[in-house]
C-alpha cells in the first residue's frame, strides 16, 4: 500500500488503510472538536496512535469523529490527554 504524499486526501482521511479489525480488538468512536483539515486529522491520529495498545486511528475533520481500534478499552482520561496534546478537545464517546 503506497503512502500518500499529503495528509489531506479527498476521502477526508489522513491515513489510508488500518480498518481491518482483529479478533479481540475494541473499536471506539470519539467526538473531537476543532479539527478542520487533514493536518488536524494527522495531529490527532499521531497523538492517539502513541497510546499503548492502539492499533489504528482514523480521524475525519468533516464529522469530528475519531475511530480508534485498540487491544483493550482505552482510559478516557488518556484519550483526552492525547487529544489535548494535539491541540483539540475531546467531547467524549460518539453516540
Looking at this protein, list some descriptive labels.
95 residues, 4-stranded antiparallel beta sheet, alpha+beta, disordered N terminus
Radius of gyration over C-alpha positions, nearest whole angstrom: 12 Å
What is the number of helices?
A: 2
- Low-confidence runs (pLDDT<50, min 5 residues)? 1-19
Please describe the biggest sheet, giving its number of strands, its sense, and whether it closes into a barrel. 4 strands, antiparallel
In whole angstroms, the N-to-C terminal distance is 32 Å
Structural category:
alpha+beta
Draw up the topology in text.
Blueprint: E1 26-33, H1 38-49, E2 54-60, E3 65-70, H2 76-86, E4 89-93
Antiparallel strand pairs: 1-3, 1-4, 2-3
Helix pairs in contact: 1-2
What report would you give on this structure?
With 95 residues, this protein is of the alpha+beta class. The protein has helices at residues 38-49, 76-86, and strands at 26-33, 54-60, 65-70, 89-93. A hairpin with a 4-residue loop joins strand 2 (54-60) and strand 3. The longest helix has 12 residues, at 38-49. Mean pLDDT is 84; it is low at 1-19.
Amino acid at each position: 500500500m503506497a503512502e500518500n504524499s499529503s495528509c489531506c486526501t479527498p476521502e477526508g482521511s489522513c491515513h489510508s488503510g488500518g480498518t481491518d479489525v482483529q479478533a479481540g480488538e475494541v473499536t471506539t468512536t470519539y467526538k473531537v472538536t476543532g479539527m478542520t483539515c487533514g493536518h488536524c486529522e494527522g495531529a490527532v491520529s499521531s497523538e492517539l496512535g502513541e497510546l499503548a495498545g492502539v492499533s489504528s486511528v482514523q480521524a475525519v475533520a468533516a464529522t469530528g469523529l475519531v475511530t480508534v481500534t485498540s487491544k483493550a478499552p482505552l482510559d478516557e482520561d488518556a484519550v483526552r490527554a492525547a487529544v489535548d496534546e494535539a491541540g483539540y478537545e475531546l467531547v467524549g464517546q460518539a453516540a
